[in-house]
Amino acid sequence: MRKVITYGTYDLLHYGHIRLLERAKALGDYLIVGVTADSFDKVRGKINVSQSLTQRIENVRKTGLADEIIVEEYEGQKIDDIKRLGVDVFTVGSDWRGYFDYLSEFCEVVYLDRTQGVSSTELRSDRASLRLGFIGCAKEMVKQSAEVGYVNGMTVSGVFDPYGGTSPELEVYRRMDGYDQLLESSDAVFVLSHSRDHFKHVKTALEAGKHVICESPVALSEAECDELFALADERGLVFAEALKTAYATAYHRMLLLVQSGRIGRVVSVQSTCTSLADLQNGGDALTEKWSSADAWLPTALLPILQILGHEARSCAMTRADFGSAPGYDAFGKVDFVYGSAAATAMFGKGVKAEGSLVVAGTEGYVFVPAPWWKTDYFEIRREDQTQNRRFFYQLDGEGIRNELASFARAIQTDHGYAFIERETTRAIAGLVGRFVSCGAEVLTIDPVS
Ligand code: CTP
Questions:
Q1: Is the pLDDT reported for residue 281 higher than 70?
Q2: Which of 39, 166, 242, 345 is deepest in the core (most CB within 10 A)?
Q3: How far is the CA of 16 from the centre of ligand 1 (A)?
Q4: What's the pTM?
Q5: pLDDT at 179 (0 to 100)
Q6: Measuring from atom 25 of ligand 1, which residue has the nearest CA?
Q7: Residue 395 and residue 375 in contact, taking contact as beta carbons nearer than 8 Å
Q8: Is 118 touching ligand 1 by the criterion CB < 6 Å?
Q9: CATH for 128-242 (3.40.50.720, 3.40.1180.10, 3.40.50.300, 3.40.50.1820)
């Protein structure tokens, strides 16, 4: 018996797939089809496959062409499968020509002509092309808009900087003259303006019937947040908070392990985020008012709120302002006391510290090394070091890509997965609002010139 094997994602099964499977089957007597697992697709850069693994396996099964279906979960698995299953022929479409020649050491390799004019990517794009407009500071929009290219079915409709800024990288997009024009040309908007303007920009977009994703904090009080959520619900719109770390695979998996009790009962969370602003260059960073709370407080708060919740018994804030630039907080610290746990968020743009995250529990602790907010790995450490475990996950686009894909999915499917719970969004808005409006003890420092 001549065994043939082929692999693919088989998302939104189309006739290109069927023709490939028919011809693969004709190469032998027994056809094995490997369907890629969601996690493996992510590693390969396919972040927004529409159908689940179960649905995609079902697609292949229904063709009646596969004698056996397996799941492809890891890089290098093809060699294992070929040896394990006694495969004679490996085949795949000609878009992969040359790529799998290394398998000829183990079996015959055949590239079949790819069917022209159809692909899952095109089908995903055709289904709903979401026009995403950007409003905000030019510098901020560059990074986020570039990530849109990785998300199927999403395009940048245009950019608008209400503060008059520009950037050469943004010239590839349509530059809008005003927010109205941007809203008219978009199905959804990404709000990346200064945090003091978020509420206004989000509200205007929701009132215009547009879905919104807004950089954290989405507003500067819990009441403002409630108003925005109510407005979104009333209009049937998706309103999501953008905080890229929440969408990074390593962070998300760490959270799940902690919530599953892997380190026992959590007693402390210490999260530190800092970056040094370029204060030597004529104080640009200061005039932009992109201070430490704007840049870091939401991220530093995220693990504390997601692990310990929103019901802290007390919360003490300290901020250090530069005397030479009043109102620019260079450093901040927020200490929480919960019923049976404590937490500290430390952050700065004029002060540098080790940017790690430590979650201490009664049976061990999680250590996420600096810069924890864009890490691809973490460790669970225990008293008995032989029980320590390291976890590695690929980080694509610092989490922004997943954030955009998740936003698109929420709009398209009507039931998005909430990587950030509404309670967390509310708490972040309330705490940042309190911090910036003098809810903190203020110290004065100055950089040494
Ligand atoms: N295939 C083909 N003709 C097409 C599309 C796919 O022969 N028009 C083949 C691929 O070469 C591969 C198999 O079908 O051997 C499964 O491909 P898959 O990656 O699942 O489908 P694509 O449509 O190429 O998906 P995407 O657009 O996401 O890359």
A1: no
A2: 345
A3: 7
A4: 0.85
A5: 98
A6: 120
A7: yes
A8: yes
A9: 3.40.50.720
